[in-house]
Structures are given as structure tokens and as C-alpha cells.
Write a structure and sequence with these properties.
Length: 130
């Protein structure tokens, strides 16, 4: 359910939201802030990524990328946009997941042999022991 909420509000799964690591192959072992406009992570909200300097290499040349300070009002606007786009799905998941587990647990708790036993009794056999 926490993943549904972070996906709906921040545009990132729970792992990405908490750690700030994007699944981008080579850079997945280090902090790698998102370059997507609709993703907000906890390190970005806390300002952790603002102090880092990132270096990238393109065609043999090295570039230092200075992180951009993001205004909190822009983060709130992004969260609002994500909520407007994903809010209905998020609410559906938050409501449906506990219901599915509740009824699934009740359904699967009943022995599956009961319907077979009813059919055997209808055929005239009183008891079958395994």
C-alpha cells in the first residue's frame, strides 16, 4: 500500500522515493536523482542532492553537472499534478488491496476438498479416507 501511495503522490516506487536511486543500469548502485519531471524523491525534498556535484562523460569529455536547487513550491506543484493524474488509481489500490487480502484469506482458508466430498456423497459414498 505504501508503494501505491508513493507512486500516486511522488511518481516513484517506494524504493526510489526513499533512497533516490533510479533503476538506470550502471548508475543504480549510487545516488542518482531522477531527470523526469514528475518524480519527486525524499532526498530531493530534504535537499540532500543539492550539495552533490555529478560528473558525466560524453564522447571522452568530462562535464561537471551542478545540481539545481528546486523550489519547494515546484515540488508541491509536481505532487499535485501526480495526485491529479494518479489519484483515482491510488485510492482504488489503497481500498482494493486490503479487501482482496481479507476475502482471499477467507476463501483460501476453506479446504478445497469440500466440493469433491459433496460430489462423492451425492454418488452414494459415505466417507473417503486418505
Amino acid at each position: 500500500m505504501a508503494n501505491a501511495v508513493t507512486q500516486g503522490l511522488f511518481g516513484a516506487n517506494l524504493r526510489t522515493f526513499v533512497t533516490g536511486k533510479m533503476d538506470s543500469g550502471v548508475l543504480s548502485n549510487i545516488y542518482n536523482p531522477s531527470t523526469q519531471d514528475n518524480v519527486v524523491t525524499l532526498p530531493e525534498m530534504l535537499g540532500i542532492d543539492r550539495a552533490l556535484t555529478k560528473t558525466t562523460t560524453t564522447k571522452g569529455q568530462s562535464y561537471n553537472l551542478q545540481p539545481v536547487k528546486v523550489d519547494p513550491s515546484l515540488q508541491l506543484a509536481t505532487i499535485k499534478e501526480n495526485l491529479m493524474a494518479n489519484g483515482l488509481t491510488m485510492v482504488g489500490q489503497v481500498v482494493a488491496i486490503p479487501l482482496v487480502f481479507k476475502f482471499g484469506k477467507k476463501f483460501l482458508a476453506k479446504p478445497l476438498i469440500n466440493p469433491a466430498n459433496r460430489l462423492i456423497r451425492a454418488a452414494g459414498v459415505k466417507e473417503v479416507k486418505v
